[in-house]
Amino acid sequence: MEYTTLGSTGMEVSQLCLGAMSFGSEEPWMLDPDDSREIIERAIDLGVNFFDTANAYSAGESEEILGNVLSEYDRDEQVVATKVRFPVGEDTPNASGLSRKTIEQELDDSLERLGMDTIDLYQTHRVDPNTPPETTLRALDDAVRKGKVRHVGTSSMWAYQLAQRLRVSEREDLVSYETMQNHYHLAYREEEREMLPLTDEENIGVIPWGPLGQGFLTRPYEELEATERGDPENFHNPTAEYARGGGKEINERVEELAAEYGVTMAQIALAWQYQNEYVTAPIVGTTSVEHLEDAVEAMEVDLTASDVDYLEEPYEPQPIIGHE
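RESULT FIELD:
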């Protein structure tokens, strides 16, 4: 396992972050506690020490499952991240958003579910248009001062919105966002225009979600079209979304290089992430130990500069996906 420093936090994290969205029972494809344990324990065996979840994942079950397993290991070796913004279960008044009330009550609930005294990285899960950034950042600053949170991060938004929040932190002498969990992969690179230069300048750790394009970069395009996700009637159709803007050709080139290197398409897509100068650690969610092992082995795939250029060359501007 390779390790790297997470932005300005100073924390050393594995170059792969295990995403916990698949742990729980909210959707048929999610894993029960026993199957989830198998993946978490194998990740730890492989050297993974960085784990990402959210209060809203499977109505809190994800946090509970992750916390139960990690409690049996050395807490000092783990870096645990969770998020706040969306409701846990029914969206009743103050169950969602980034108000002080919501943050304080949801943080306490997350701590209880995780079985921890302190969360290493507490992230705002998108922007709350109804709460001023000052209010959110003051609540987060208090959480750090109380010892409930060590560092704070955020997720997909416009670059100007992140810049605004960084200025608020500086002006008001409040805790500042030290990580960005954004949407970024070979077939979706809009973040390179403004967000990634900003995070680089501010030494903000970048931990992309969906580094495999919700499966778009894991199988040949023809196979994707035949799946449910490729159905044009599907409300969220990642195959169609990522195929535009040169995406179909990118998929084909990933397949071509995978054959040349004798690895999977997912490993080529992840190797591009691991070697990307902007990326700290992609968040990899999985429902199988085999795919987790493949993701770790992808660190050994050494793409050449010409390989990277070849993969990136077909890309064209895309509509924004992942935030509004």
